[in-house]
What we know:
The chain has two domains: 208 residues, Rossmann fold; 92 residues, Rossmann fold (3-Layer(aba) Sandwich). It is of the alpha/beta class. 43% of the residues lie in helices and 14% in strands. It is built from twelve helices and ten strands. Helix 1 crosses helix 7, helix 7 packs across helix 8 and helix 8 runs parallel beside helix 10. Helix 5 links the parallel strand 4 and strand 5.
Amino acid sequence: MDGIGAPQEPTLDDVRRAALRIAGRVRRTPLLAAAPVRDGAAWAGTLVLKLENLQVTGSFKARGASNAVLSLPASTVARGVTTASGGNHGLAVAYAAHGAGVPATIFLPRSAPESKRQKLRRWGAEVVVEGEVWDDSQAAALRHAAATGTAYLHPFADPAVIAGQGTVATEILDEDPTIDTLLVAIGGGGLVSGVALAARAIKPGLRVVGIEPVGAPTLLRSLEAGRPAVLDRVDTAAGTLAPRSTDALNFGIIQRCVDRIVLVTDDAMREAAAWLWFEQAIAAELSGAAAIAALMTGAYCPAPNERVCAIVCGAGLDGLGP
């Protein structure tokens, strides 16, 4: 993003180029059949899981951050990178910066878990805690980037980040082109934007369903308003799904390529994380369990024999209980 005009939406070709660019720097994560399961849920028989919780740094974010860093001119990236994050994007930027041998400064809201702060420091990043929510941290990060001349890497409103996230969809459909529906958790909209634009370009009839927390329905309210909306407040324990606003870039892609958005409660995500742990031995954070929560609560009800892929987008211990 160069500040001249609005950023251009990435294309499927951009996603394909991102896949080549980040090859060897990120993992091609497994696509796992959910069945057999103990509880016999009707939807489990045709469900597959894309395990981005096994991605390097623990989430899909490594894809977009790596593509963004590798897309920058060498003279720009040499000055270092700055971002604001609920945790996962910050880890991904720290990882990408470490690989490039440049400094990274990561701004976090106070709600970010201490475990993620520690991981960031282990990757050599400078951690700055600023504000109650991500939007506060972003404002501080933008000021820091302007003052230091470092590149600001937006967690979702960046064409290179979106293209990197889209490689999740190309991997899924390369491995299983019979998928009918993708279930994708939504925070700011970077993952669902990349996944939706790539998936619909490859298979136009494929359904894309987004999932947001009841306490942070940023994209649902934006779609209802017909423009990017700003929430008065957010109220969810899923910190990586809790920006108060999205961006016009993501909104446009989502408006065109996402079929519907459903809401799930924090308790439903906790129950889904527990299901993933006890049924699948998968350790997922709340955002990583959001797609399963949509199935378990009936927020999304697949048709008989509908092949559904749920993206388990981030690792965590939410399913382990107290």
